[in-house]
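WARN retry 2 of 3 for item q-0093 after timeout on previous attempt; input resubmitted unchanged.
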Amino acid sequence: MSENNLPGNEKPEQAIVAPISEIIDGISQGITENNVSAIEQLLKPLNPAETADIMDALPTEERRQLIKYIPDILDGEVLLHMGEGAAIKLVENMDADALQSATESMDTADVVELLHEVLPKEAADELLDSMDQQRRQRIELNLSYDEDTAGRLMHTDAITVRADITIEVVQRYLRRHEKIPEDTTALIVVDRKNRYQGAITVLNLFLQPETTLIADIMEDNWRTLDPNMPEQEVARSFENHDWFSAPVVDKNGYFLGRIVVDDVIDAIRDEADRAMLAPVGLDEDEDLFAPMLPSAQRRSVWLALNLATAFLASWVIGLFEATLEQVVALAVLMPIVASMGGIAGSQTLTLTIRGLAMGQIADSNTAWLLRKEVGIGILNGLVWSVVVAAITYFWFNSVKIALVIGAALTLNMLAAALAGIIVPLSLNRLKIDPALSGAVVLTTVTDVVGFMSFLGLATLFLI
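OK item q-0093 returned
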């Protein structure tokens, strides 16, 4: 008999997590049948993030039923990992005591995110009032920095030590803590005024003799982050240096907190969601299972904006109604000019928005980038205008129509290249997110220029 099979050495059974689709179906069935024990059994092996995924995947009424059956499921970590729209709906009926209980074990950075993104102002104020003074001061420090900066991401509950003490003293100090902050891979070394001096990894505390001074083994070459650094730059720094955590230090050298890779991954995920949803007018907090009427209202704003731009393009076409009546082939060919310009412009727009997000575009290289994209627009315009003109000639047996569409296509692809650079740069300077409205402006430009150039040239040379 092996040692593992001896009596008293039995290992506890490990919970097996089913695929998320099976859990969703099982919970829906449990709600329908009022089978609370079955629901509890499905949720038991899940961590807060996995539970949040399940909550996001349930229709609104089923979420409410689930909370009624198992109210303890709605803790702060679950709310934090849920989509904003779904989380906001769930906290509407929570009182200050319930919120305090749900958030008391969360670290300050996570509470700040919950306060800012999920809780309504009144509930957020009540939650702050219910906290002890030290915890409230830490959270207010985070809130004092702008959104999407290192100051908002940082954890203020880091463990700090001094350089003139021994490893033995540090170990005794750590043993007195009931709970060490999560993701603590290093201790921060500060002086008596809390000025940053360096860091020591937790591993070094066990590898060195207990009599060793912290000053002798601390690393003083760690990169630090400014609290006003944008989230995107923080993410790039973590990527470039393969960090697990990094200290946040103000301009006077005072240690403020630390940022851990887990928060950076969340920020990257949020940015990816925003980049995917913004071009079609949706926010990151869009709830897939929100009620029909609120969802329709949220989307109607974007539809109205697109309708306005479509009418503008139609108005331009209407200016050349007489030309279209005389040369029917123009109506057949007209979408080609706008479509080619739209695709070319979208390519430039996407690359420019990505360059802005990664901090690659600066005043010194903007002119070079503009010349490059204009050159690409002209080159592609000439090449594809020849292809389209040749097809048009064999299709309609008209040299004039072929030349007109070729010239219009070149002009529109040049305009698309210019718009693909100028539009996002201009919106960025105006503090408007280019990912949100850049595509609409670009489409309007390529449609209007495409129709105007094609029909205008046709009016001049064909009528």
